[in-house]
Design the sequence.
């Protein structure tokens, strides 16, 4: 559905995306993951034709450079935030976006209903909470019922509650057959939202893998604090050391270095040895 | 989910998209503080100027309706260019800075459609402001018992709108050349100072100091759209243009019946050229 080949983007002498290639199949969801400045957002802007680039990008077999309008008619885009339309009412913003796409006002009513924004339609954008603003951004993207969704850091400015709500919404969208490209720097959420992760750093693709393998591929380790009962610390150290774990005892239990994707192994080893675990804390 | 028929989307500019953008631009501009500041200032000063142009007094050598019109032309020369320049300067740099332009262009909308829609919306807003100012001035004139030449009055209002469009294009060109709305506004005010004050006073000073031939003086004046507007507007109710001194006499003697069409052509060129340059710059595309 999306085919990017040898994409390079320069801002004067500064190369922000370099020789980046990616194929996304129809119905697949892919995350562009990486720190700020990795080039994720620039890739999204290239797909939308918002910035010039070298290389080729096709969406649905259409060339993004020469058939930009046709390509954008296939795409629903969710920006990081909608603060630039703070003075508009929710329904006005949706009406405007619908009119630009030649959609009927009835479609706006439909989307207001399905996105649970009906009670807020007369509010100005600035009066919405962060979560509702993002819901409105997604509503705007869904107006044309597009086969492709591009989401630029959809949870970056949200508190924990709003983030959970948006992630649940995006999980639903993931399962209704759309092609999704999500940019994110949160490792936890890409695991819930996508089939494949493309890690980027300094404008280059560094890793491409399943979400569950990302931490392992990146060599990210976690520390588990296993709080044991009845002074079982010494036994726990023995069992875990024998299993090859790096273990550090303390007054409440043991700290064990584990693979970020296989924390259960250490817990299982202690349970198998009959050592009771009172509590578990994950330290990154 | 349905699949959009992308094949039917044409890359050519479409009226629907242009109309949608123009309508939103007009609505937003009419809601903005900037617009009301300029409109109220223009309409208020127009009303005051017309009111204080007492019967029997003379402004720039004119009396009666000519006096009213001359005072309005003087006011237009100052306010309308600043209005057009600032609206134009904020039109692209502002939305680019805030992210609104990125959101707009993420739709199936081309840059040409976005540019034309913005231009038309702002042009309509300037028409509304000009009509409000002239409408109030006209009402005050009629209420004051001064016999008005309606045709001349409407003609001057149209010329004023033409001037505002020329300045809008210059403002939009500045907007495409700058990254921030602050820089664009600064550029707009600078151009306004150059055209309104330095252009006029500088030309007079240079002419006096260098004994510039009158034909050169006239040609140089025409490079300034505000001067072209002033000549065209004053020629509407005074075919001699003696009040403008040797340059006015030269213009009338040389161009005769072609004077007003020539001035209109100059103004039209000022409407088209900067707007076309701004479109080219926007279309060929800086990143958003």
Sequence:
């Amino acid at each position: 559905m999306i085919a990017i080949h040898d994409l390079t983007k320069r801002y004067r002498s500064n190369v922000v995306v370099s020789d980046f290639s990616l194929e996304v199949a129809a119905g697949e969801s892919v995350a562009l993951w990486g720190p700020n400045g990795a080039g994720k957002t620039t890739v999204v802007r290239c797909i939308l034709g918002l910035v010039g680039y070298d290389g080729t990008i096709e969406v649905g077999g259409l060339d993004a450079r020469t058939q930009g309008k046709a390509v954008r008619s296939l795409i629903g885009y969710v920006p990081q935030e909608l603060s630039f339309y703070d003075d508009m009412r929710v329904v006005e913003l949706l009406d405007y976006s619908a009119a630009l796409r030649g959609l009927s006002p009835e479609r706006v009513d439909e989307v207001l209903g399905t996105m649970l924004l009906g009670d807020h339609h007369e509010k100005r954008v600035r009066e919405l909470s962060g979560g509702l603003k993002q819901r409105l951004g997604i509503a705007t993207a869904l107006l044309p019922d597009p086969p492709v969704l591009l989401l630029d850091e959809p949870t970056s400015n949200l508190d924990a509650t709003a983030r959970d709500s948006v992630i649940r919404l995006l999980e639903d969208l993931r399962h209704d057959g759309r092609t999704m490209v999500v940019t994110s720097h949160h490792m936890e959420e890409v695991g819930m939202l996508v089939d494949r992760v493309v890690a980027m750093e300094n404008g280059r693709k560094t890793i491409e893998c399943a979400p569950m393998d990302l931490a392992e591929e990146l060599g990210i380790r976690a520390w588990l604090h296993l709080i044991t009962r009845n002074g079982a610390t010494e036994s726990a150290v023995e069992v875990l050391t024998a299993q090859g774990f790096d273990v550090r005892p303390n007054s409440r239990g043991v700290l064990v270095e584990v693979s970020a994707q296989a924390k259960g192994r250490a817990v299982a080893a202690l349970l198998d040895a009959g050592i009771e675990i009172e509590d578990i804390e994950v330290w990154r | 989910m349905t699949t959009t028929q992308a094949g039917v989307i044409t890359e050519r500019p479409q009226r629907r998209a242009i109309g949608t953008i123009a309508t939103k631009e007009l609505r937003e501009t009419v809601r903005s503080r900037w617009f009301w500041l300029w409109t109220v200032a223009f309409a208020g000063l127009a009303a005051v100027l017309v009111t204080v142009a007492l019967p029997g007094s003379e402004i720039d050598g004119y009396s009666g309706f000519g006096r009213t019109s001359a005072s309005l032309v003087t006011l237009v020369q100052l306010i309308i260019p600043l209005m057009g320049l600032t609206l134009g300067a904020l039109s692209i740099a502002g939305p680019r800075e805030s992210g609104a332009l990125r959101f707009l262009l993420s739709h199936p909308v081309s840059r040409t459609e976005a540019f034309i829609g913005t231009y038309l919306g702002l042009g309509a807003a300037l028409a509304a402001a000009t009509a409000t100012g002239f409408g109030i001035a006209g009402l005050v004139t009629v209420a004051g018992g001064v016999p008005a030449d309606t045709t001349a009055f409407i003609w001057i209002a149209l010329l004023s709108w033409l001037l505002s469009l020329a300045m809008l294009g210059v403002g939009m060109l500045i907007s495409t050349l700058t990254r921030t709305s602050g820089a664009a506004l600064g550029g707009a005010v600078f151009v306004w100072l150059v055209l309104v004050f330095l252009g006029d006073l500088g030309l007079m000073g240079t002419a006096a100091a260098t004994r510039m031939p009158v034909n050169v003086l006239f040609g140089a004046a025409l490079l300034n759209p505000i001067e072209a507007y002033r000549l065209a507007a004053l020629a509407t109710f005074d075919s001699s243009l003696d009040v403008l001194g040797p340059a006015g006499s030269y213009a009338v003697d040389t161009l005769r019946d072609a004077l007003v069409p020539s001035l209109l052509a100059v103004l039209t060129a000022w409407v088209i050229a900067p707007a076309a340059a701004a479109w080219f710059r926007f279309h060929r595309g800086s990143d958003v």
User: Anything to note?
Assistant: The two ends of chain A are 37 Å apart (CA to CA).
